[in-house]
Write a structure and sequence with these properties.
With 373 residues, the chain is α/β, with parallel strands linked by helices. The protein is 43% helix and 16% strand. The chain folds into two domains: 240 residues, Type I PLP-dependent aspartate aminotransferase-like (Major domain) (Aspartate Aminotransferase, domain 2, 3-Layer(aba) Sandwich); 111 residues, Aspartate Aminotransferase, domain 1, CATH 3.90.1150.10. The chain has a seven-stranded mixed beta sheet with strand order 2-10-9-8-5-3-4, sandwiched between helices. The chain has a three-stranded antiparallel beta sheet with strand order 11-12-14. Helix 6 packs parallel to helix 7, helix 12 packs parallel to helix 14 and helix 14 packs antiparallel against helix 15. The structure holds pyridoxal-5'-phosphate (PLP).
Length: 373
């Protein structure tokens, strides 16, 4: 029907606010010059409250998976015993990465519509004192599950294993308290809740992870975190970074700081609750129960999920995401992260109810949730 104003409602990449996008049009500057050398550390330091850490945050030029590979390539030596907690497509990605780096991979598979069970992790670790690294996703974007990483960190008890967390679709949308929860490595990326174009990954390490890294003898070059550490001390990255993402991040952090992180997280929870109330009012089934539901993406069951969302895209220009892995074709996903507001949720629900000829049902349910705030 019309194409001129596409509406991205997928779990990343997300729309970029125009004041952030404008930063991407700035002149290119020398990444080894005085201006950039001052800006890079200053901007990365402002990411620390989002990570909940006082440790340095490093930037890599690449997508979120580059950040994940950085974690693996700096920690996993051939034969390292690791445990991957898998409840979806992104949990699986840790398995594939660890296998590529020849880890001895142990996997606990969880049902794909439910969160990771910390009790099972505790039992596995008690039986496997040799495990050195645990990998998991905080927000499993493929299913819309928010995992309780704090509970998993606690479930380690006195076990030695480091906990490595993919917070790509969580950071900036839901609390991540790296230091307080005892997370050892946290990875994120630009194109999700940080409201930036794709092209940068961010990673922070605990002191324990930093010490462990020196003992790792895996091959690594571009992703060698020791280089990023040395270079950041003088305000640089080892290789030419995505300079404009740094300009843009400065702007998006200003937006998040102005709103206040607590209010940012509350906005995401409200969008989650409105989405879920609206979907339920349409008689559609949610993939995930309330207790495990993600504040940034919601998965909805539909027998013809792909045809349904494609029809919506063609008619209204609203783009929902399909599903990956076992739910492909049976589930579609509504993104509500980053540059998104309750009004966007109302329009997401509006196209669903129009497509289903249930006019007003979902919007009314969501409006009641919004009004109760
Ligand atoms: C988006 C995403 C990634 C990163 O994917 P890239 O395409 O490499 O940026 C990783 N983990 C999760 C949970 C994600 O949502």
């Amino acid at each position: 029907m019309y194409r001129f104003k596409p509406e991205l409602r997928i779990p990343g990449p997300v729309p970029v606010p125009s004041q952030v996008a404008l930063q991407m049009a700035k002149p290119v500057i020398n990444h080894r010059g005085a201006v950039f050398k001052e800006k890079l550390p200053e901007v990365l330091t402002r990411l620390q409250p989002l990570f909940g850490t006082e440790n340095p945050v490093y930037m890599l030029t690449g997508s979120g998976t580059a950040g994940m590979e950085t974690a693996v390539s700096n920690l996993v030596s051939p034969g390292t015993p690791v445990l991957c907690l898998v409840g979806g497509f992104f949990g699986r990605r840790w398995v594939e990465l660890c296998q590529s780096y020849k880890a001895q991979v142990h996997i606990i598979d969880f049902p794909w519509d439910r969160g990771v069970d910390p009790q099972q992790v505790a039992e596995f670790l008690a039986a496997h004192p040799e495990i050195e690294l645990i990998f998991m996703a905080q927000n499993e974007s493929s299913t819309g599950v928010l995992n309780d990483v704090e509970a998993v960190a606690k479930a380690r008890g006195g076990h030695q294993a480091l906990l490595i967390v993919d917070a790509v679709s969580a950071l900036g949308g839901t609390p991540c308290e790296m230091d307080a929860w005892g997370l050892d490595v946290v990875v994120s990326a630009s194109q999700k809740c940080l409201m930036l174009p794709p092209g940068a990954a961010f990673i922070a390490l605990s002191e324990r992870a930093r010490a462990y890294l020196d003992r790792c003898d895996a091959s690594r070059y571009y992703f060698d975190l020791r280089k990023y550490e040395q270079f950041l001390e003088r305000g640089e990255t080892p290789f030419t970074p995505n300079i404009h993402i740094v300009f843009a991040l400065e702007e998006s952090l200003s937006m998040l700081e102005a709103e206040g992180l607590e209010r940012v997280y509350a906005r995401h929870r409200l969008m989650r609750d409105m989405t879920r109330a609206g979907v339920r009012a349409l008689g559609l089934e949610l993939l995930v129960s309330d207790s495990d539901a993600s504040p940034t993406v919601t998965a909805v069951k539909h027998p013809q999920a792909d045809g349904f969302r494609q029809s919506i895209r063609r008619k209204y220009g609203v783009e929902f995401a399909g599903a990956q892995g076992i739910f492909a074709g049976k589930v579609f996903r509504i993104g509500h992260m980053g540059y998104a507001t309750p009004l966007d949720v109302l329009t997401s629900l509006a196209v669903l109810e129009i497509e289903l000829s249930k006019y007003g049902a979902a919007a009314a349910a969501a409006e009641r949730v919004m009004a109760a705030q």
